Amino acid sequence: MVELTQDHRLSATSGSPDEWLGSDHDVQTPVYLLLTRSLKFSNLRDSQWSIAWPVGGLTEHQMTAWRHIQLEVCTYLVDLDEPPRYEYHGPITKTALTGPVMEFMLVNTTLAMRKQIERLACDTGAIRACSGYIPQDSREWITQLMDSMVTAGLMSASKRDQVIEQASSA
């Protein structure tokens, strides 16, 4: 069972503090489902899922950074017995993709569509760690976000299903 929390909204609505790494210009840009394998896990099945798009230039060739929509681990220093919670605190801009990555194209978007994806991520909520295992929990959260993207008309249900199937069998 997934428990949604809403206490992440304040930080998620304030914009990306690291946008200086790469501005998101009003140009057509592809949005991807990324599977990023950490050093901790050797199997691609154990990858963390995120939604991301290149930023930083007016053409894809000039784009030098990636804007990520992903869960972050939130742990409690007061009560160490409390399981970790995964929260979305707004988009994160990184100058490069890290670790072995698989990309699955979701949709080509305008800036307004990407901003809507960011708002939908805020509304998706955060997951209190059900499994205690971020790859599984991130997969569930990103799937919920893609469901919201379909409902909002940002991508087709068939494309969502195709990408989830491909990523799940990678």
How far apart the termini lie comes to 25 Å
Strand content: 25-35%
Number of helices: 4
Main pleated sheet: 5 strands, antiparallel
Number of strands: 9
* Largest sheet: spatial strand order: 7-4-3-2-8
In which range does the helix fraction lie?
Answer: 25-40%
Net shape: globular
Mean pLDDT: 77
Low-confidence stretches: 1-14
- Return the structural class: alpha+beta
Kindly provide the radius of gyration, computed on alpha-carbon positions and rounded to a whole number of angstroms: 15 Å
Architecture overview:
The strands form two sheets. The chain has a five-stranded antiparallel β-sheet with strand order 7-4-3-2-8. Strands 1-9-6-5 form a four-stranded antiparallel β-sheet, with helices on one face. Helix 2 crosses helix 3. By secondary structure, it is α+β, with helices and mostly antiparallel strands. It is built from four helices and nine strands; from the N terminus they run βαβββββββαβαα. The N terminus is likely disordered.
